[in-house]
Structure of Olfactomedin-like domain-containing protein:
Amino acid sequence: SLQNTTDRYIKLDFELLRIELREFESLVNQLHLSFNSSSPMIESLSLFPPQIQNMTSTVNLLESYDKRNLELIRRSFAELQEKLEECQREQDTLSVITPCFFLSSGNCNHKGILSISKPKVVQINGDLSSSYVYGCWGKDSKPDPGYESMYFYGGSSSTIYGRYYQLYSDYEKLILRSYFKRYSLGNDKGNNYIVHGNAMYYQAYSPLRMGKVNLTSLQLEYRVITEASERFSYSFINDQFLDFAADEKGLWVIYASEQSNGKLIVGKINENFLDIEERHTTSVYKVHATNAFMACGVLYVTRSVDLTTDEIFYPECGKISS
């Protein structure tokens, strides 16, 4: 009869579920073995066996109690499977995506930048928040011995509030969001940070000044740039008055002043005294630029082409630093 046929199919479905759960348990065990014992993922994976056991018991119970609840257990299984796939994606990220886009500083015996690759998306920000569109991440551009693999990250939903910053011992710890130090500056403003020589340089406010924090001792230093103006920020972003950059030639701060009529000024920073030892005024108005950076002593400036594209439109004619 039709009823008997339906029962046989339901019986078969429950048996398939038990087989899937056994395979699922085997996959969890394999994934568990593939991670290092110190990996934070081990703790996540340890949650799966009890859930699998509970689902197996539920399958047996539902089969004997009410065959119409088959869809309920299938939904639960799908949710558990999705969690496991997320763990697998984390593993794949660690094994496939390597930090190859952070290259060692090379020599400057060339004619400047020839091309720029497309950006490589690593993962959503470390705060797992789509509203955190401001912040910084990267490596120390002049690391102390033993800290060559260290990464830093700090995210925020605004440019005007202090945020927390995390330090990660290496790329894997960055991906797993497993930091070894977390700190807050409290007086930072803007979206312009750099780590150089085991110190973070940033824009402090009240008053506007350069800030420097030693990443070991967290000791703070400040220096006011008297001519730097709060009237001139990059286009499409507020509060970007002091912008920091580093290259093969040293550490730099980029800003504009009333005296320069809003044109970009590049200052080379003396790291020992947190002072500007030389300045160069350019012909580019800061409000027309979206960003600027240094490479081999040359200033490069970007501007917006459309909603999704910027272009480098201004390499400083002649090197800022030889």
Q: What stands out?
A: Residues 2-96 form one domain. Residues 7 and 67 are 8 Å apart (CA to CA). The longest strand covers residues 275-285. The chain has two domains: 2-96, 134-315.
